[in-house]
Amino acid sequence: MKRIYLDHAATTAVDSEVMQAMAPYFAEAFGNASSLHSFGKDASRALGAARQTVADALGAGMGEIFFTSGGTESDNLALKGVMMAGGVGRGERGHIITSAIEHPAILNTCRYLEGAGHGCDVTYIPVGSDGLVDPGDVADAIRDDTKLISIMHANNEIGTIQPIAEIGAIARKNGVLFHTDAVQSFGKTEIDLRKTPVDMLSLSSHKIYGPKGVGALYVRDGVEIAPLMHGGGHESGLRAGTENVAGIVGFAKAAMLAIERFAPDCSHLTKLRDMLIKGTIAAIDDVHLNGHPTERLPNNANLRFDFVEGEAMLLHLDVKGIAVSTGSACSSASSEPSHVLLALGLAPEEIHGSIRFTLGRENTEEEILYVLDVLPEIVGKLRAISPIAGGKR
Q: By residue range, what is the domain housing residue 349?
């Protein structure tokens, strides 16, 4: 049976070139990058080279890249770090602006900071039915005590790409720091921090064919943030703990490959995405695209099937060897409706009929044709037994 992986927004396979780059740092060049002997110096050089590679991929300076355990830690470090550095919670109050469709790493951090004793107020900007944040709403929400704006670059569920250049310009004009979660967008959209007014940016390795457990936070030179963990002086004192040299080397290699393969990857993914969206809508009645029709990631197709339960679709597709998602991987075990789709104004029954297909560079046209071949039969069977289908086939 064919096995087709269409859940790349959840995670990706480690690229073979990435594995080769990492291999020596497990058993040969295994030194601690903080050690002064030759083993440590070898590890330190590898760490420096990786930092430079990630910096170059973003158009940033080497000293502006801090390695973390992934996107969630990077998001926490950005938000909590700015608030703590500004004295918030120690007699000072601060205000954060974010959107209603952020990743849980942002939303749950904001809720924590809103809690007793942390001294934060948070404004959650709504989005339109296409998932776009209106920069004007961000500007209107700025207060005298606003310390940070955090708007994701691209949404992990619906793939909508936000106007971060406009939002960043608004933040800069008002003297407010701007953070963006670029975990889903890096390698799939152009990011050049020499042109875009961003103060902090979060990345994750395992979304770009690198290893899990590694990420980075870009912090513009001059931006002050406080560390979350305390220990040795690793990562210039911002992130204590012995660096995962092998993982960081793999992350850097994956970032390099993402930049080198950017144009062909985006062209390939866009072609497959449009083939899947158009083919599904043409073959099956009552199917709708969630998110913006054009301002979206090249690999994301979030489709809503009326009169069908998404989890049942997922299981039937899995039987056919096709892996998809009913929402973000971080909350896929939850029975609660997606907060992202709720923010788009969808009813719970519409949300539960939504499926996220996210493509990768190894997917082929033949695989999409197979999906388009089996999908109508699955939907037809499920609608035939649906109590709300009203006779739809």
A: 4-12+262-384
Q: Provide the token pair at 348.
A: 């719970």
| Residue that wins the pLDDT comparison between 230 and 112 | 112
Q: Is residue 393 assigned to a domain?
A: no
Which position has the token pair 């002050």? Answer: 224
CATH, residue 133: 3.40.640.10
Residue with tokens 């001294």: 119
* DSSP string for residues in 308-331: S-HHHHHHHHHHTTEE-BSS-GGG
Evaluate if residue 316 carries a pLDDT over 80.
yes
In total, how many domains does the chain have?
A: 2
pTM of the model: 0.94
Is 110 assigned a catalytic role? no
The answer to whether residues 322 and 256 belong to one domain is no
Burial class (CB in 10 A: 0-12, 13-18, 19+), 163: middle
